[in-house]
Amino acid sequence: MKINGKKKYITFLKFKRDFQKYGLEKARSYELILHWLKNRLSRSQFLILSGILVGCTAGLAGVLLKTLVHSIHFFITNKVHFEYQILFYVVFPFLGIVLTTMVVLTLFKGQDRKGIGSILYEIAQNSSIVSSVKMYSQIIQSAITVGLGGSAGLESPIAVTGAAIGSNYAQTYQLSYKELTLLLAAGATAGIASAFNAPIAGIMFAFEILLTGVVFTDFIPLVVAAVCGSLLSRILLQEDILFRFYTREDFNYKNLPYYFILGIITGLYARYFVVMSQKVEHFIKGLNMSLLRKAMLGGAVLSLLCVLFPPLFGEGYDTIKSFTNGNVHSIIENSFFRYFDIGQWSIVLFLILILLLKAFATPFTIFSGGNGGNFAPSLFAGGSLGYLFALLCQQIGFEQAPVTNLVLVGMAGAMSGVLYAPLTAIFLIAESSFGYDLFIPLMIVSVISYLIAKWFSPISPELKILAEQGKIFTHKHDKNLLFRLKTAHFLDLQSEVISENASLKELFELVKNGRKNIFAVINDHKTLKGILTLDDIRPYLFSDHNEEIIMKNIMKAPPGIIRLSDQPLDILQMFDNTETWNLPVVDNDNMFLGFISKSSILLSYRELLKTYSE
């Protein structure tokens, strides 16, 4: 017993010395254990362990958010009489957006970057480093917004939360950029998988939206994270919260014409949805109002829409389940349409108005101050569109139209056209409906919708916004690695400068004592006036020169000037256009800061590419 105790004590001392070596004396117990495991496991083993931990954490975050929002919805829509529900529809959506804005302004200092675009921004512009605040800020904001009736989805906030969890985990254990990006994607994957209980769709989301054009050999952490997130969702969430559809018809090839037509309709609707969202966004951003007043305006618009059309309240998944269960009358009975004769054409008109107004309710929710995403709205709109199409087919005599299947594939079509994610949409609906025999109609509708969306705009709305801001390069994603490089990092702070009034003798002394072959000519205010190279000086080296010659007489204008705000990709293009290897950098006041060489950028890019490909 004493010998065993002594061995344990020696092992503990070695364990402690390792932690002191890496400066981890103040780390938490579980962090110490993981640091110890990192140094003893192989890289692949530690990444798999990391995928499990990140996946479980992100999955729990998704379960927490879905449960919280569902509980609020259940109280508002099921425990309150219809007359009081109207009052709730007036008050709660308004409060949801206003309270979210107040939380952002007071707790998060006005930093409200949200949606999938925020993840793409962090990958392209911030070396995949996501603020730790986003591990909980998105949950708080979206729970308030959607829980109180915001017409948006929870999946984007869940994905951002998962990405923040993965990123901060990788930062804590000092992983490389490639591993950091991989675990960021793993967190987002687990979030999506838990939201829909669809692990394959979560993986497709990562590869199709977050990691477009990036090849990862270490994809196992994504898989295990998706499985963990989906399992936790399946175990912890109640059956009525799960995104599940149990009723559908068998696939019949004779119904293919319905799917081809629905693919075109969903593609056109997706374009309508995107255009209306952009118009509402520009309208709100153009208002000369405070953020709180914008929130009040958006909340008022949303409340009015929810009072008139209750299906616009919240995510809308219950409405889609009613379509697939053939219980559409219960939806209308909770609206003002209950006071009219409910016939088939009344339902048609009701659905058309819902589809038209959903394209306004969602952007007013998101851009006026709420927090949410377009996952749920696109699925809601697609399901409603599929049911409307089936209803119209039956009204004109095609009574054999597969109603439930059209609802399901309609969801995939609208999501594919809005998010530019056909594979994610296909697997999401296939997994959620156990409808793997629906792959053919799902592929037909999703691909047609996607192609129509691409015909109108080659890149998705999220990427387009970042591209217009110069934050991401959209044509060849390997070039997005250049956005990780910062212009200031390439400045030669030891660049040689000389006054424009200096003599040739002073210049020769500078050449004699220095090691540079290019010089910046500046005035007394350090403003760049021109440049000189050794080739420019050579004619004066071995000739009788005039002592009165000063720099302003022999300097030349630089072939190009770089600003600190210029992106490395633009700088490389300038080097190619000017056919030079060194260019001066100035600030906004034209003050000289230093030279940048083309070789330094290319060398850094090669090193980054090598690291990313290993």
TrEMBL record:
Q: What keywords would UniProt list here?
A: CBS domain, Chloride, Chloride channel, Ion channel, Ion transport, Membrane, Transmembrane, Transmembrane helix, Transport
Q: Which Gene3D superfamilies match?
A: CBS-domain, Clc chloride channel
Tell me the domain of life.
Bacteria
> What positions does the domain CBS occupy?
491-548, 555-611
Q: Give an example GO cellular component term for this record.
A: chloride channel complex
Q: What is its main location?
A: membrane
The record's annotation in InterPro entries points to: CBS_dom (IPR000644), CBS_dom_sf (IPR046342), Cl-channel_core (IPR014743), ClC (IPR001807), ClC-type_chloride_channel (IPR050368)
Q: According to its UniProt record, where is this protein located?
A: Membrane
Q: Which SUPFAM superfamilies match?
A: CBS-domain pair (SSF54631), Clc chloride channel (SSF81340)
This protein's membrane topology, according to the annotation, is: Multi-pass membrane protein
Task: Offer one Pfam family short name for this entry.
Answer: Voltage_CLC
Which GO-annotated molecular functions does the record name?
A: chloride channel activity
Transmembrane parts of this sequence? 46-66, 86-108, 182-207, 219-237, 258-275, 295-313, 347-369, 375-393, 405-430, 436-456
PANTHER family per the record?
A: CHLORIDE CHANNEL PROTEIN CLC-E
Q: What is this protein called?
A: CBS domain-containing protein
